[in-house]
Design goal:
The protein is built from three helices and nine strands; from the N terminus they run H-H-E-E-E-E-E-E-E-E-E-H. It is an alpha+beta fold.
Length: about 170
């Protein structure tokens, strides 16, 4: 009987933690609606991006910065005001919390579709790290995420995407 009680308590704690991690149906519905709106914006050809198809890879010299727009979309900024949206293969919950992405790529001079990365803070030491980085095998690293294709976009499309994401 004394062994059974701690096992029940531990099981309840695990179930509560898992329930807290699950997303609500409302959140899922909102995310799906946002994804559909963003896909519509990206499929709307206009301006200089109109004749350029999505790219599988970006060379290291083509981009100089990135911004997480939400947990599924990265904006890469390049030379000559070029921009690309990368729609990740799946949601990356740590994306909005970090400052650095650590790529796991087979090619050192470019990043490509299906390359994986982990989100990180600038510092890996525990006393510099912010929540939620304190899980996993290494301090300072988030979950592993996978890149999609790089869709060229205009400033106007980026503004529309930000507006869709801000409306929620």
């Amino acid at each position: 009987m004394s062994i059974l009680r701690p096992a029940i308590i531990a099981t309840n704690i695990v179930l509560l933690i898992c329930a807290g991690c699950a997303s609500s149906p409302e959140t899922e519905t909102r995310d799906q609606a946002n994804d559909a709106k963003i896909a519509a914006i990206l499929s709307d050809s206009r301006g200089p991006a109109e004749s350029v198809a999505a790219k599988r890879c970006l060379a290291e010299r083509e981009y100089h910065n990135f911004h997480a727009l939400d947990d599924r979309h990265l904006l890469f900024e390049g030379l000559g005001n070029k921009q690309w949206i990368n729609t990740l293969r799946a949601r990356c919950p740590d994306l909005r919390h970090g400052d650095v992405i650590r790529m796991s790529t087979t090619n050192w001079s470019r990043i490509c579709e299906l390359d994986s990365f982990q989100v990180s803070d600038w510092f890996d030491w525990p006393w510099y790290s912010r929540w939620p980085w304190h899980w996993g095998g290494s301090w300072g690293l988030g979950t592993q995420c996978t890149l999609g294709k790089f869709q060229p976009v205009t400033d106007e499309q980026v503004k529309e995407i930000r507006k869709v994401l801000k409306s929620n």
